[in-house]
Amino acid sequence: MKTLDQFDLTGRSGIVTGAASGIGLAYAEVLAEAGAKVTLTDVDAAGAEREAKRLADQGYQTRWDVCDVSDLAQVAQAFDNHVAAFGGCDVAFANAGLDVGNGFWTPEGNRNPEGQIDVYDPERWYKSIGINLNGCFHTVREAARVMKANEANGYRRGGSIVITSSNAAEVNEAIVGVPYMAAKAGVKHFMRHSAYELAAYGIRVNAIAPGPFVTNIGDGWVKKNPAAKKAWDELVPVGRMAETYQIKPLALLLASDAGSYMTGSHVMIDGGMQLGPIKPL
Ligand code: NAD
Questions:
Q1: How far is 137 from 97, CA to CA, in rounded Å?
Q2: Is residue 110 packed enough to be buried (19+ CB in 10 Å), middle (13-18) or exposed (0-12)?
Q3: Which domains does the chain have, with CATH numbers?
Q4: 215-to-56, 181, 222 alpha-carbon distances in Å
């Protein structure tokens, strides 16, 4: 087989959580570009519908579903709907996530009095864990359930699960809130165990750990605040935040047969932020 043919997803299907915006939308686009049938899910139903229709208008086979990843029943329903529509599931991106704010540093680089541990708002902690960590568990749980059933359903055996982690799983990225770092570190190790357990079923599990990408995360502050964007650009060794198209090749590698020997990997795509301190105290 020619190398580039291993990236072809013709005849396959994939589902993405948090697909109405940013990195999740880029995942949905690259799946479609590679030939897969795609379900875009999001807690923002209007956004998922809008983007699924936009891709369908370009000739891709897409559908959409509303799905809040913090609610296991909604995640299970979204996966069941995907299988009912496409016969099985080859690829699942557990991507939905958010930053609840209140980092140790403000985006502008000042100490944030509300971001210190001794006064940290517990409700923000619970919300972050509920979406970033529990939501990941719900999605991987349901992906494993439907992928294990693929072969018995007369569909292709196994599948690929790709989780969106963060460089904050590895380094003390004190600008994002501390629960975000804790959740993503949890995501990383949950991914590693899931990969170990599911390998025997032909299911690969990997995580993409992005550094700073220009998306709508944190209410899109980076798009609204040029000074904060500039401050972030200067924290990155390559000198700039990333655009979402830059994550597509890595996403396709992990989703497709091109990544057939990769499982349990936490792959950094961070412009080198892992190489040094994010910001000195
Ligand atoms: P984004 O805000 O542009 O997109 C996130 C999408 O997830 C939105 O469409 C939002 O509606 C959806 N969402 C939020 N809560 C949800 C929920 N409970 N259930 C379902 N959908 C929900 O942000 P993004 O930057 O594209 O974030 C995507 C993933 O990338 C997240 O897991 C985030 O932690 C991760 N990430 C982002 C960056 C970055 O710099 N942008 C860096 C590292 C990791």
A1: 12
A2: exposed
A3: 3-271 (3.40.50.720)
A4: 22, 18, 8
Would the ipTM clear 0.90, i.e. be above it? yes
- Give the mean pLDDT per block of 10 residues along the chain (281 residues): 96 98 99 99 98 98 98 98 98 96 82 92 97 98 98 98 97 88 98 98 99 93 88 90 98 98 98 83 65
Residue ranges of alpha helices (H) inside 58-177 are 72-86, 122-128, 134-148
CA distance 197 to 265: 14
CA distances in angstroms from 169 to 2, 35, 164, listed in the order given: 35, 32, 11
Which residue is catalytic, options 180, 188, 194, 229?
180
Query: In angstroms, rounded to a whole number, what is the distance separating the alpha carbons of residues 140 and 146?
Result: 10
Q: In which region does residue 162 sit, left (phi positive, over 0), alpha (psi from -120 to 50) or beta (all else)?
A: beta
Ligand 1 midpoint to CA 78 (Å): 18
Examine the residue annotation and report whether 180 is marked as an active-site residue of this protein.
Answer: yes
Select from 147, 166, 144, 165 the least CA-distant residue to 155.
147
For residue 25, report the distance from its CA to the centre of ligand 1, in Å.
Answer: 10
Please tell me the pTM assigned to this model.
0.98
Pocket test for ligand 1, best of 30, 50, 71, 98 (most atoms within 8 A of CB): 98
Please name the residues in contact with 65: beta carbons below 8 A apart, sequence gap of 6 or more.
39, 40, 41, 48, 77, 78, 81, 82
Note whether 96 and 43 are within 8 A (CB): yes
Alpha helices per DSSP H over 120-216: 122-128, 134-148, 178-198
